[in-house]
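Hey, can you fold this?
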Amino acid sequence: DYTDRLFGDAPDEPFENSLDAKQLLTPDGDGGEAGFQVLGPESRLSQSCLWQMCEDYYARMGVSAWDGVVPCFVTTSAFIAEAYGEMIINFLHDYDEHLDRAEPIYIVEMASGIGRFSFLLMKELEAKLAYFSRLKDLQIRYVMTDFTENNLNYWRQHEKFQPYIEKGMLDFAVFRPEDETSLHLLHSGKKLSAQSIHNPLIAIANYFFDSIRQDIFRVSNHTLQECLVTLVRQLPENGSLPSADDPPPFSEIKARYRYQDVSPGHYYDQLSFNGILQEYKDTVKNGTIIFPLGALRVIRNLQTLSNGNLVLLSSDKAFAAKEHMLLYNRHDFAVHGSFSYMVNYDAIGRYFANQGGVYFPSANWGVSVQTVCCIATRKQGVPMERMKYYFDRQLNIANPISSIARILPDEGNGLSRLLAFLRVSLCDPRVFCGFARQIVDFLPSATLEEKHDLLRLMELCGEKYYFYRGERNLPYWFAEIYYHLNLQEKSLHYLEEAMKGYTEYRWEYCYLKGRCHEKLNQWPQARQAYEEALSLKPDYEEARMALEGIRCLSIGERTTDLC
């Protein structure tokens, strides 16, 4: 695949929250030569104290955690509510003949946070369901949950939720989905369990899986290694120990990693989790894997709660594909008031697929948030045609959930913003040509994810390209961009396409052909291209200098041969 040449080996990304193994730590936790205090013994990442510190943070902060500290716009915007409304409607259409219309359809949102998304999604569902005669009479029951009752009290008193509470559409529950398989609704008093849920359960997990338990593994020559982590706190310059009652800010916490060989077959007490580890060991020669242990435990419990009828909708900072995750040799947490890790949606997708379910992932690597829909029901053979259509033809092209955020003036860099505009335009070729020169200018600083998305979006633009005399020269811009991405064969292909339809500036096409052939060490073809450029534009200085360079190179080679 030509993308292999583009990306090459995985980069060893520097992370501000990790330490080199050479930095010394004293075992008694009293600080050490490097000025750190050890926070607990070395352990698996999932068994470290980090997760309890995270829970303590949200319990202490309540809904004020989202007062400009913990980010929430992307997963509480009108655009994500509209997208989730579409996914739910599409699922209900696909599953329509199997629904028990005498029973409610429960939508359980985990870690509902500030509550804005819940409000917007209920508005979207009400509006959308009214359009469809087969769906408008369904009994939708939306359940907002969190592990702390303080947040529930805030939602229950919010004026925007009162109409939904009164009509019986909205309820609330304290719920720890990593540990529990049932929940008690505070308003209706009903207990939700495997015995009381008769339709598929729709579960929502936004910005949730990234801050619950994870593990890290490394595959080295198909040998699986577990990551053992030591968490430490950087001490003040005077070396004094902070009070035990003073929780350290996450910005002061660092991690030291050590790897050791393990067997994937008996690592966890859940065979299905071990099976995923075995798949990575067998299919990855070398690479580092972040494993969503907490997310898989949540999904397992939700499957129990729903009697194996589960639809999971999730948006998070995540890797939706294994290849994306393997671009990085190390994975660490980001700090934003609390902290978060990237989520391995690929592992979650494998979990569903291994049980006969389906996995619909977003396909844009460079956006801030990925979105997935995972479905596993007792009804086999349901085609899920509308859901597949939505992901393939709408969400994966426009990706409104993340694209809109990148368009905002204070979000994203130049190239990521241009790619967001391109997605929202549904990859219109004329839009692409409108800022193609800017794309070229941003390429030297582009990330691997941005290059991946650019290549994919170019393919979609190319499929929509329709030549007529007044159309902009998309083939030339493709040739220019492929050249700067070191994909010279692709560049040459599009230069030929440009020459077929566009007669102006042909000398520039010839000059770019020469540059491509030079990079491919095809010197006779490069010479011919430069000579053709000069025949079309005799004062073309760049082509003259390039041709002179080839002549000098040829003279030098002949001189070497004579010597």
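Oh, and this one too while you're at it.
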Amino acid sequence: MFRRLRGIPLLGCLLGSIGCHSQPPVPPPIQKGDYGAIIRYLQTRIPREMARDNVAGLSIALVNGQELIWARGFGLADKDLGVPVTPNTAFRAGGISKLLTATAALQLVEQQHLALDAPIQQTLREFYVRSRFHSDQAEADRAITLRRLLSHQSGLPSEHLRDLRSTYAMGQMPMRVSGVWLSSLPGSQVAYSNLGYALVGAAIERSSGKSFEAQLQSSLLTPLRMNQSSFLGTGAQMSYRAHGYEDGKASTDPQVRDLAAGGLWTSPKDLSRYVRMLFAKGTYKGSQILGSASIDAMFTQQNTGNALDFDCQMGLGWFLAPCGDEPIGPGVRTYQHSGGGDDFVAQLTLLPDQQLAVVIMANDSNAEDMVVSLTTDSLRLMLQAQTGKPVCADDCQAPSHGLKLRHVPAAVDRKRLAGFYATAWGVFRIRDEHARLSGELAGYDFQLLRDEQGWLRAQKKILGFWRKDLGELGRVQLDVLTVQGRQMLTARSHGQRIAIGERIEPPPLSAAWANTVGTYQVLSSHEPDAPLSGISVRQEDGFLVIRGQLHGEPLTDYILLPIDNAHAVLAGNGYGLGDTVSRQVNGLSASGYSFKRTHSPHTPLNL
């Protein structure tokens, strides 16, 4: 909840700058088996793009079956000391950590210390939830299983923000978050949850009798000879770890509380060993690390039948489809996971049928777009080297970024679509005004037109001319569908449909919630790197709109929907949505924080 206005999938080019980056150099023709040509091309391309985007350091590994084709470091792990990136430099892996956590949990399932479909409360007895979806609260507790935690279907909130940068023991987490309100009905949809994986880490500790780091080292990292990998510490503590940079500036490299969700330090070279183990059905250097049945379970879709997930397929830990990102090629199965934060970016993508994989990690937030495009292009070239045939997402034709035909939606269409839509990136406002349909998200506005296929497309006029390229926003096709009685704003990108928002109607506001309008500051928080310093609540067009603040910087707007006089939720479904906000005697509480009112419309400001 309360995320920054950055890193928005499908909207990155528009929100980041006018237009996208220049095109990379044209790759050479790749003959069958000629991986050397790929390496030479990447050795030229990567330094150019790093210089263009002001990226400090980057490391890459290419895998073909049981062979590490290439591992190479570029740039600097520490700019102040001039330490270069080598193939053994470790980076923060972010969300890729979840793949190792899921693997460790499945090892314990094989040993019958954990069970995929048993309530997690059997292992974490002090943990319980509160639910507005169940009349029987014990039934809600039983619905939180290891399978649902690993596949992000537990219904738990995405984050528990209070003490996010603390170093207290992982085993304390279940007690600290007990009583948390569910954000969605368990098993009904995929909603990415770092909190869920923090509980998986606690379950691994409890069932193994070892600390999380000790268990991961003994069961996974050491057998795979991942010698630069661990879940402990910061970059300043190990000489082979890269220092992180946010927009080119050195970051503070904070501690990570939820180690199981995002605390892994590793290198692409080390992760290549993990990938080769998966390709070998669980064996590495003659040792059986994980059973083949467990690997099959990781790569089996867990969210079949979830209408709200559309074309997004989720395994145990792994995303089994691009989920709106550009695919490698027609009919090419792709499993992937990314990782990121303010100062590191990582991507691990594998092609299970061809046994090809690319792992890229960088120590700068500026590298996000570059890492994605490098991963996609590298895999296409490797696939070409394997088959001898060129590979493209569609038909290898240059993409058309503009509209061939532009139709202003008809009046009845505009009336149907106009409204407020709750998205994971804030309030998406669609308005019918001046015989046009306009959209606004995160402070950026554009016109919505119908394309020749009947989809909505975003366009913007500058100096009287239609811009032909609004980045990803201009390319995706939008429309509103009714699913399970909910009006969902969907996007079709690269032939895949995904949900990006839900239309919300203005609710009746009780006097109690209407009186929450005002500004609030975090109460009794001594966190040096707290993700929130305050919130504000205002009324807009019949809605309560809540906005987070971080040291004076406004975060994203969300719609606040009262459930009863004491509780409201962040409207919509997806990352950070559905989270509960509670009224207190002198303020509000959310995600473990208490907020004290500092100003309301009924009291004068102290100027």
